[in-house]
Each structure stands twice: as structure tokens, then as C-alpha cells.
């Protein structure tokens, strides 16, 4: 007479070879058997520790009750395919389980369908491996990467700016000019370049010191930035020289803009007194004969010097 094969489902893990039972309980990974309705039928000590439940508590629920709602359809779809024989493969997934304390723990689940000697589905055997540390490290890495990307974006922005005034630097402004030229050649959109230079700025430095001089430059840049639109570009082109790119603007409209800026700016001299200083400007609307950025810029520069000479 041959001994009848004992199914762990009918007999229970405790009913089989004690060595098997001991291995099942002591192995350092969560193990369980789950019936065809998803109910836990055997669970090992590691799984109880990992999830924080008493054995009778876990044996009275289904895996769905301690799974994230969004994970359940995928598991059910695999169970359906597996029971129908459409798939023979394991189901593996890194997922979260609800710990008895109410927090979610990360685990790597691997499940296989066990069939009896006639090929009839009997139960599922699953290993549930604690991967919380890995997941926490992954989250920390994601966070660091995000911080790194933010710092990189900030650095990139800073590399386009003049350190003192926050206006664009020459390199970034030249890029804006090239883009504007491209747009002009594509669609003929009006764009005007304005070149502005403070008059006798050297005297401010000489009379009131460099700190006051710096303050004048910063305040003037702020005025230009405040008066410009998002589509415009404002740059510090050198010591006391500024440039603006006014998008969708004719030379006449740029002139109106400069008139609105006024002819003088006020600044504090540091001893409670206020002084004013004038500035000169020149402009050039982009035309077909401007072959390069330098051609275009030279014309605005010439017009600015003409304005400066006429005001002397
Ligand atoms: N405070 C301060 N001064 C600067 C800075 N960069 C350049 N300068 C000074 O700006 C002054 C520019 O002098 P100039 O080019 O002769 O210009 P200007 O005195 O305005 O004369 P005009 O252009 O003929 O009106 C120089 O004295 C430079 O030292 C800066 O970042 N801060």
C-alpha cells in the first residue's frame, strides 16, 4: 500500500514533516499559502513579524484586505489567467502591504499556483520579502536626484545672469539676439534692440564710491526689468551699459518705451541726499541688411553715441 500524499491544504503545515514546518517558520522570508479565494491559510513566523499580525488575525483575512486598492486588479488578473491555465508563470511584484499598525510596508511578492496530482488548482504559495530598506534608499535617491536637478537648473539660470544686477549677461543676451534674428527671418516679426549707457557714471564712483555706484547700476537694472514684459530681454552689457531686446516692437514703439523711462534716474548718495543722473539710448529695429548680431548691435550703439553727443 502506498501512502497517500498529504496536501498542506487539507493537512495544514503543522501536519507535515516537522522539519518542513520548522523550515517554513524559521526561514528569513515571509511565506504563506493562500487559498483559491485569496484567503491566507498558512503563514510563517517571519510574515507575522513583518506584518505585525497574530496568526489567527492573518488567517481570517484575504490578501486583498492588506493590499493597496490599485494593486488588486493586477493580482486578480494573474490569478484568473493562472487558474485557467493561460499562464504557467510566477507572479512577481514589488508592492505594499498594510502593517497592523496602519503603516504600509514594501515587499517583493512572488506567487506560484500549486496544482494537485490531477492538475486541479489547489492553492497558491507565496514568498513575501521585506524590501523596505531598498525602497527607502530608492526614495532617498529620488529625492537627492530631484534636489540635484533643481540645483542644476538654478546654476544654469545663474550662469545666464550678471552677478551684480540680475540682468542677463552678454553671452545669454547674444543667444536671445540670435533667436530673435531667426524668428525675424522666419516670420518677419518686428523686434527692436535698445542700447542704454549711463552718462558720466565714472563721476558717481569717483565722488560717492563704488558701493553707491553699484547701487545705481542695480537700481537702474531693476527699473528696466520692471518696465519690460516677459517676452523682452534685459542685459547688462558692460560696466554702465545696458541692452534691451523688445519683442514684437517697432523702432517708434521702442522710442515711446524709452520716453516712458524718463531721461534721468535718481539715486541716494549715501549721506541721506538724493542725486539724479541722465542716460543715453540708441535703438535699431532689425532689418534685412543686418546680416549678423554684430551689424545689428553696431547700429544701436551708433545711435546711442549720437544721443550722448547731442546731450553734451
Ligand atoms: N561701481 C561700479 N562701477 C563700475 C562697474 N563696472 C564698471 N564700472 C565703472 O564704470 C565706469 C565707466 O566709465 P566710462 O566708460 O568712462 O563711462 P562714463 O563715465 O559713464 O562716461 P560716458 O560713457 O562718456 O558717459 C568706470 O569708472 C568703471 O570703473 C561696477 O560693477 N560697479
TrEMBL record:
Tell me the keywords, alphabetical order: Coiled coil
Note the coiled coil stretches, chain numbering: 134-161
Instruction: Provide any one GO MF term from the record.
Output: diguanylate cyclase activity
CDD domains hit by this protein: GGDEF, PAS
Residue ranges of every copy of the PAS domain listed in the record: 16-86
**Keyword tRNA-binding listed:** no
- Superkingdom to which the source organism belongs: Bacteria
Which catalysed reactions does the entry list for this protein? 2 GTP = 3',3'-c-di-GMP + 2 diphosphate
Location of the PAC domain: 91-143
Task: Report the cofactors.
Answer: Mg(2+)
Look up the EC number in the record and give it.
Answer: 2.7.7.65
Q: Where is the GGDEF domain?
A: 189-312
NCBIfam families in the record, alphabetically?
A: GGDEF, sensory_box
- PANTHER family with a match to the protein in the record: DIGUANYLATE CYCLASE DGCM-RELATED (PTHR45138:SF9), REGULATORY COMPONENTS OF SENSORY TRANSDUCTION SYSTEM (PTHR45138)
Protein known as: diguanylate cyclase
| Species | Bermanella marisrubri
Taxonomic placement: Bacteria, Pseudomonadati, Pseudomonadota, Gammaproteobacteria, Oceanospirillales
Amino acid at each position: 500500500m502506498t501512502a497517500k500524499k498529504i496536501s498542506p491544504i487539507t493537512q495544514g503545515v503543522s501536519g507535515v514533516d516537522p522539519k518542513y514546518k520548522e523550515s517554513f517558520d524559521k526561514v528569513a522570508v515571509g511565506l504563506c499559502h493562500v487559498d483559491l479565494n485569496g484567503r491566507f491559510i498558512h503563514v510563517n513566523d517571519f510574515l507575522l513579524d513583518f506584518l505585525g499580525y497574530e496568526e489567527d488575525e492573518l488567517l481570517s483575512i484575504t490578501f486583498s484586505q492588506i493590499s493597496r486598492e490599485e494593486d488588486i486588479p493586477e493580482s486578480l488578473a494573474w490569478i484568473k489567467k493562472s487558474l485557467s491555465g493561460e499562464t504557467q508563470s510566477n507572479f512577481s511584484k514589488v508592492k505594499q502591504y498594510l502593517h497592523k499598525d496602519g503603516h504600509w510596508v514594501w515587499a517583493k511578492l512572488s506567487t506560484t499556483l500549486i496544482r494537485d496530482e490531477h492538475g486541479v488548482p489547489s492553492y497558491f504559495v507565496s514568498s513575501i520579502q521585506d524590501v523596505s530598506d531598498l525602497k527607502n534608499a530608492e526614495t532617498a535617491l529620488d529625492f537627492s536626484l530631484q534636489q540635484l536637478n533643481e540645483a542644476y537648473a538654478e546654476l544654469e539660470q545663474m550662469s545666464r545672469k550678471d552677478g551684480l544686477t540680475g540682468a542677463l549677461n552678454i553671452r545669454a543676451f547674444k543667444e536671445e539676439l540670435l533667436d530673435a534674428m531667426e524668428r525675424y527671418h522666419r516670420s518677419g516679426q518686428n523686434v527692436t534692440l535698445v542700447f542704454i549707457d549711463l552718462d558720466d557714471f565714472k563721476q558717481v564712483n569717483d565722488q560717492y564710491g563704488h558701493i553707491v555706484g553699484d547701487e545705481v547700476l542695480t537700481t537702474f537694472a531693476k527699473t528696466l526689468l520692471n518696465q519690460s514684459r516677459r517676452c523682452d530681454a534685459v542685459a547688462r552689457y558692460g560696466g554702465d551699459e545696458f541692452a534691451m531686446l523688445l519683442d514684437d516692437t517697432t523702432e517708434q514703439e521702442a522710442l515711446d518705451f524709452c520716453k516712458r523711462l524718463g531721461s534721468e534716474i535718481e539715486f541716494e548718495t549715501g549721506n541721506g541726499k538724493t542725486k539724479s543722473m541722465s542716460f543715453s539710448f540708441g535703438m535699431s529695429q532689425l532689418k534685412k541688411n543686418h546680416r549678423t548680431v554684430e551689424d545689428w548691435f553696431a547700429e544701436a550703439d551708433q545711435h546711442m553715441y549720437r544721443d550722448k553727443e547731442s546731450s553734451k
